[in-house]
Amino acid sequence: MQTHEIRKRFLDHFVKAGHAEVPSASVILDDPNLLFVNAGMVQFVPFFLGARTPPWDRAVSVQKCIRTPDIDEVGITTRHNTFFQMAGNFSFGDYFKRGAIEFAWTLLTNPQDQGGYGFDPEKLWATVYLDDDEAIALWQEVAGLPLERIQRRGKADNYWSMGIPGPCGPSSEIYVDRGPEYGVDGGPEANEDRYIEIWNLVFMQNERGEGTSKEDFEILGPLPRQNIDTGMGVERVACLLQGVDNVYETDLVRPVIDLVASIAPRGYGAGNHDDDVRYRVIADHVRTAAIIIGDGISPGNDGRGYVLRRLLRRVIRSAKLLGIDTPIVGDLMACVRDAMGPSYPELVTDFDRIQRIAVAEETAFNRTLTSGSKLFSDAAGATRTAGSSVLSGTDAFTLHDTYGFPIELTLEMAAESGLSVDEEGFRGLMAEQRQRAKADAAARKHAHADLSAYRELVDAGPTEFTGFDELTSEARILGIFVDGRRVPVVAHGAEAQAADRIELVLDRTPLYAESGGQIADTGTISGTGASGAARAAVADVQKIAKTIWVHRVTVESGEFVEGDTVTAAVDAKWRHGATQGHSGTHMVHAALRQVLGPNAVQAGSLNRPGYLRFDFNWQGALSDDQKTRIEEVTNEAVEADFAVNTFNTELETAKAMGAMALFGENYPDEVRVVEIGGPFSIELCGGTHVHNSAQIGPVTILGESSVGSGVRRVEAYVGLDSFKYLAKERALMAGLASSLKVSSDEVPARVANLVERLRAAEKELDRARLASARAAAGNAAAGAESVGRVRLVAQRMAGGISAADLRSLVGDVRGKLGSDPAVVALIAEGENDTVPYVVAVNPAAQDLGVSANDLVKVLGSAVNGRGGGKADLAQGSGSGASGIDAALAAVRAELGRS
Ligand code: SER
Questions:
Q1: Domain span at residue 505?
Q2: How many domains, the chain?
Q3: Is Manganese tagged as a keyword (predicted)?
Q4: Ligand 1 pocket: which of 79, 86, 203, 214 to mutate (most atoms <8 Å of CB)?
Q5: Are residues 9 and 63 in the same domain?
Q6: Which of 282, 321, 824, 855 could form a disulfide with 813 if both were Cys (CB 3.0 to 4.6 A apart)?
Q7: Do 38 and 163 lie in a common domain?
Q8: Nearest Cα residue to 852 out of 863, 831, 837, 830
């Protein structure tokens, strides 16, 4: 049975049973604790927690999931994918254990000609949480499963949570016995390769708190209702129903293996285990990479971008290890698109962008590999020169750490050059690095705020935002926090006054909390208070759990008591600037897409009064012409004085209108749309905006730059700041024109002319300096002294001479000294207190055992220098001209001894 059919049967089965079909969410949701969506239930978390009311009691989805903790298992086991499709049915307070078991069992065991998967019931096993007798009884009753095929397992296996605070509950997993050829019997408890888990039924009934592992976490209490969350591994079911050995050989993954096999010198399944693993790694990772890029991530050095980079690099390295030397990623992406497109149309519609980003990473990484190969040859050369045949662990580690060489690649290259590698040393360094990374991660964890203090307020419901309609609102204080601790009252001067330590939570507020790229409003909170007038300045407003808005304040006078009525007011001038900044961002976004096309996809933004920046996916710098056009289109749209309309509507309606949504953002069903000038700009946005576009004022683009691979940033000033910036530029220009004594228009030509003249003068000066140095060198040669058995010229040169000139001079002088043993040592006062020096030794002196490399070290020790070279010529650089005489004396003394 093909994978697409497996998905379809799952959806059909549950839709027939009254479940709403919900599309997969993006793999990137707006939750900093979750790198990627790793289960079907993630998009439903607020429903389980009772924070939002689900529009349906039952739902079914096939969710795109990314799990990378087992990345090293990929290709080695038969069942680990970094990307997989999780088919799941969900009950929000509707059916519970019995329903979940019944639905799963019928779909699995119904014959294929009746819409089921046709698994042999005799091959199915179930596990349950230790004390879940109810589930055991249901498995027996509903499915007729005998007791000997039901196993009890502990918390690590059968108590499911997201690994972070959130909904959780005991689970029951369904396994298929693949038969004795896959290992010993004894059920899942004994062997998870033979008994392969295909479906996890979670009886979601509790809420978990912080914890350190799968087993160690606190249960905060029951959820408002009992729910069901299940997840069936589509790839694993495909593997079993297609009778293939592993998930990489299923119909949607295998085409990549076949494509690679048609290019690689060594085939798949040809008896080389390592090669087969490489094939599977490529097939698995390239699919995951396509999905991640599709959902808006570009390769980078941290977070999600880093995971993507790591996946792509593993693909490229695996291909290299298979003997493929040509670029391959572009073709692999096309292969993924063809296989996965029918289920994920975005891979088809967005293919050009996805492929471009992946190929750019391949090109960049290949360059790194080339530099790494050079480092490898140098290290191999040095190893041999040192008379060793073992490449050091440090070299292997540098190749791995800096150039991304897997140890296998280094081993292979070393073997080709007749060397072995100190693998133990390498592993030691890797272990140290892991240790460091672990320590870092632990340190970061402790810095996380403990959100449990706010839990009660979160449960009480969201803060009402009044700021779209008014700048001042009456409100009630629901909670006061100092350093994250709830307190009943806070007074001026009594507590720490730093603004980031005191927080007020109100039932409603006109102050905008930072989100969607718009930074928080500033303003005041004031009240009559229990003991006189109180006033606090609001420095920041942040959302907690996305629902309650926390005002970070400095109490300037009086005291605030929980329950008090207060007046919250936005600083009107600030808000005016903020609306200009945010509306300006929408205008620049629209203009960018008009000029660059739909591939310029938003990757992030930030705006505050007077300033905005906008990041977007794009390869390569923008031309001056493009920048000018973007600025022009933006300002024309400002000038057109478009009306700004904001309204709420259903997500689907908004999308149909062409409203631009952010990749990875988890939008509710009802969304707010901001429309500026009809089709010119339509975005989903919760921010505050001007009423018509002319209020934005002039927008001046400051520049455009790169902020990571494939992501560009445009920065601009808006409104009065834009004017101030232009006025400053104008004053600058006027100043320049006046000091150059020309009109503004003539400044560029005048500057070009001056630069040219300056260069010519510098060249002339260099020539003169060298000529005088040469003359000095000539004299020096004439006055060479006899030291020991050689003729020596040891001299301090005039200041300002470069190391290159010094090298050419030293050659001149050595040439003039004839064929008797001769040594030349020149040292100069360079720029910035550097002291460059060069030593040359002619062949006759080398025959006497004198080496430039040794002498340069003698020179260097007097001027804190470092350097080296060969027996005939060596150079270095130190600092501190006061050591020059001592350095020359040291050379004399050294030669005197020889
Ligand atoms: N959330 C559970 C899992 O991921 C079931 O869907 O296994």
A1: 452-567
A2: 5
A3: no
A4: 86
A5: yes
A6: 824
A7: yes
A8: 837
